[in-house]
Amino acid sequence: MSKKVLILSGSPRKGGNSDILCDAFMKGAIESGNEVEKIRVAEKNIGYCKGCYYCRQSSGKCVIKDDMADVLQKMIEADVIVLSSPVYFYSIDAQLKALIDRTVARWLEVRDKEFYYIMTAADETEESMRATLECFRGYADCVDGAKEMGVVYGTGVYEKGEIKDTPAVEQAYQYGLNV
């Protein structure tokens, strides 16, 4: 059965290491017959949550008029969500964090999702990605019916494109193929 797959690439670098892994996942998911969309978060105009809770009194409409309403609707409609980020100071990057925080407007509508997590870091160890993974899992813990399906660790990569010669590319492709 075909699924709607939404890939949220937090990489600020188009063609950066985590973005390359998103493309590998996407290739596999398309080949297995799924409907796939990749959103490069850095290319969207998404402001940070102001904590005003206007959304609570306005049926989930945010006071900020930007690209987030469209992205959030896609998250609600997706069966599978891929969260991807380079590791910055042991956490997710600001672009993806702003997007996650902005889901508060309609967070109860984001439910029954399969989650995959993709992370890249210059550090050689998966241990350095623990806080990033916990950020992803913390968000999923707030999603009713969330299921963690897979984690891709792209370690030891700093320069753009270095990930291409690692097993993480094949792992991301295989996860996509098996969605």
Task: Describe the 3D structure.
With 179 residues, the chain is α/β, with parallel strands linked by helices. It has a single domain, classed as 3-Layer(aba) Sandwich (Rossmann fold), CATH 3.40.50. Helices cover 32% and strands 19% of the residues. The protein has a five-stranded parallel beta sheet, sandwiched between helices. Strand 3 (80-86), helix 3 and strand 4 form a beta-alpha-beta unit. Helix 1 runs parallel beside helix 5 (167-177). The termini are close together. The model has no long low-confidence stretch (mean pLDDT 96).
Written as H for each helix and E for each strand, in order along the chain, the element string is: EHEHEHEHEH
CATH architecture: 3-Layer(aba) Sandwich
Distance between the termini: 10 Å
| CATH class call | Alpha Beta
How many beta-strand runs?
Answer: 5
Identify the overall geometry.
globular
- Helix- and strand-based class? alpha/beta
Strand order of the largest sheet: 2-1-3-4-5
Q: Which segments are poorly predicted (pLDDT under 50) over 5 or more consecutive residues?
A: none
Index terms:
179 residues, alpha/beta, 32% helix, Rossmann fold, 5 strands, 5 helices
Sum this structure up briefly.
The chain has helices at residues 17-31, 68-77, 94-102, 130-141, 167-177; strands at 4-9, 35-40, 80-86, 114-120, 147-154.
Secondary structure: elements and pairs:
Layout: E1 4-9, H1 17-31, E2 35-40, H2 68-77, E3 80-86, H3 94-102, E4 114-120, H4 130-141, E5 147-154, H5 167-177
Parallel strand pairs: 1-2, 1-3, 3-4, 4-5
